[in-house]
Amino acid sequence: MNIEGTPYRTIWPAEDGVAVEIIDQTRLPHEFVTVRLENLHDTALAIRNMLVRGAPLIGATAAYGVALAMSGDASDQGLEHACDTLAATRPTAINLRWALARMKNLLLPAPASQRAARAWKEAAAICDEDVNINRAIGEHGLKLIQRVLEAKGGPVNILTHCNAGWLATVDWGTALAPIYAASNAGIPLHVWVDETRPRNQGASLTAWELKQHGVPHTVIADNTGGHLMQHGMVDMVIVGTDRTTACGDVCNKIGTYLKALAAFDNQVPFYVALPGPTIDWTLEDGVRDIPIEQRDAEEVTRIRGRTAEGEIVSVILTPPGSPAANYAFDVTPARLVTGLITERGVCTASREGLLALYPERQ
Predict the structure, then answer these.
(1) Domain check: are 11 and 70 in the same one?
(2) Using one digit for the tens of pLDDT, what is the confidence trace for 13-51?
(3) 33, 23 contact by CB (below 8 A)
(4) DSSP character at residue 327
(5) Total-model pTM
């Protein structure tokens, strides 16, 4: 995607060929800063501290983390240590473990002398595949937006939650890919952007992305979506997911479940956009089986922003001594999901629907 007219991916090899560069998403929207990752430690910190985030991008970054590790220690022990270190950074997003398993399966049979070169090539391939997958998600989701336009005859109002745009992937995004495709096709639309507390990925990242692309949007407080749906101001909801079960349950940023309940009550279509690697075929019950990351309470008790004088500061929101809980994700049961938008098409949120698109998983 373009930033002030310059095309960017969210992760790319450095020009010297010995490091990787990323966009530091913790500095957006106030500052656009790129960061250089030179080793396994840098990569693990970037994932854990959310300089990169979003399930597909976490997986791509982990793949490059393995490549960086192999450039330093390509032994079996070095490979095991790299995969274990990266796997421990974020527990919920399945793409992380998918990418690590793919890298490990490729590299273990190879001689140590060839592992670094193969790892760099495979990490680049994972990134290219992600771009193509997300572009296809956009094309399939575009058809759903076109149907709403044909039925409504006016601008399509879409609500989204958290950030599932190009900043959450290598490029294009998942939930925002159909929106970008629709915008490029000239479809009149408007996006309601949930702020997405506590890290405000909607207000800080989704809004920034949409502005860069010229998509009309409005940032709203997280609790506004139900009110908008009651008054006919939302035509459809599109969100992303960090892990989807074999039966169609979806795990996304905390607050997604409440949006799905409101959409169900108001007969608003609720779609989830996801790439195939986000499906965890080993899980049946998302509420019971998906591990939910609990992050630092300070993400709830403090907030970061820019003052009128331009200074970026972090301020305390809560009374001293008040404890805070910070559950990062929740699970939306398949029964509340209208459809899943994948790179292979749109299906029902069910085992039968997913297997129709991924028959090799029978």
Answers:
(1) yes
(2) 999 999 999 999 999 999 999 999 999 999 999 999 999
(3) yes
(4) B
(5) 0.94
